[in-house]
């Protein structure tokens, strides 16, 4: 097994969290390097795209979270070997990136009223539309998992995002949004959460 170091912010969510969960499930040892914002700022220019996560594999630096997720998924038997199932797994992970790009601009708004308006606009349209579409893709594949008929990194990626919505990480986005528009994604979240290794990671 190579020497693995994952560098990400010290939060249990967002783009670096999927690889952490996959390593846990796969029982693969890795260094979980957690950076605070000062560390990140000091080292930003050294990262390939000036952003996290990065994964070092025997010293080779891999950037871009979904590329990292695919690599870690392969190491941890959480990525399909069938090409079509792999494409469905990738589709799901890229879809979560798409919606994250819609939300990201609201993260840095300093004015609270402006942030509230921007979040309410997301809740009025883009978020429910996306949730319904994502749920439809899950349901079309049987309703349990997004690819390969089993847990893959795609499920972990969706789980991390749905968890953040349900925990109210985004102010002005109701924690009931997912249950209201996409109950099958709540059931999917709970299916992943029922895994004792996942629960142990958070508890
Ligand atoms: N496309 C990149 C986006 C990476 C990204 O934006 N990461 C955020 C944290 S989730 C970050 O490092 N933000 C700080 C910055 O860009 O200065 C990926 O998929 O990994």
What are the key terms here?
Glutaredoxin; 2 domains; globular; four-stranded mixed beta sheet; 4 strands; binds glutathione; alpha+beta; Glutathione S-transferase Yfyf (Class Pi), Chain A, domain 2; 203 residues
Task: State the gist of this model.
This protein is of the alpha+beta class. 59% of the residues lie in helices and 9% in strands. It has helices spanning 17-26, 37-43, 65-75, 83-107, 112-124, 126-140, 153-167, 177-181, 183-193, 196-202, and strands at 4-9, 31-35, 54-57, 60-63.
Describe the model.
- The longest helix is centred in the middle third of the chain and has 25 residues, at 83-107.
- The protein contains ten helices and four strands.
- Helix 4 packs antiparallel against helix 5.
- It has a four-stranded mixed sheet with strand order 2-1-3-4.
- The chain has two domains: 4-75, Glutaredoxin; 83-195, Glutathione S-transferase Yfyf (Class Pi), Chain A, domain 2, CATH 1.20.1050.10.
- The model has no long low-confidence stretch (mean pLDDT 97).
- The protein is globular.
- Strand 1 (4-9), helix 1 and strand 2 form a beta-alpha-beta unit.
- The two termini are 27 Å apart.
- The protein has 203 residues and is of the alpha+beta class.
- The structure holds glutathione.
- Residues 14-15, 50-52, 64-66 line the site of glutathione.
């Amino acid at each position: 097994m190579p020497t693995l170091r994952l560098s990400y912010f010290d939060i249990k969510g967002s783009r670096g969290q999927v690889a952490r969960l996959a390593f846990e499930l796969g029982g693969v040892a890795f260094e979980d390097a957690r950076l605070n914002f000062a560390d990140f700022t000091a080292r930003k220019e050294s990262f390939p795209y000036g952003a996290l996560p990065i994964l070092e594999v025997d010293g080779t630096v891999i950037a871009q979270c979904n590329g990292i997720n695919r690599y870690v998924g392969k190491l941890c038997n959480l990525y399909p070997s069938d090409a079509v199932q792999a494409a469905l797994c990738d589709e799901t992970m890229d879809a979560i990136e798409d919606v994250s790009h819609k939300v990201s601009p609201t993260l840095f708004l300093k004015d609270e009223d402006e942030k509230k308006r921007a979040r309410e606009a997301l809740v009025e349209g883009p978020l429910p539309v996306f949730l319904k579409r994502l749920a439809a893709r899950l349901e079309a594949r049987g309703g349990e998992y997004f690819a390969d008929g089993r847990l893959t990194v795609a499920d972990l990626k969706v789980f991390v995002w749905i968890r953040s919505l349900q925990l109210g990480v985004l102010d002005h986005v109701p924690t009931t949004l997912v249950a209201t528009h996409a109950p099958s994604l709540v059931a999917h979240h709970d299916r992943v959460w029922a895994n004792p290794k996942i629960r142990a990671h958070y508890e």
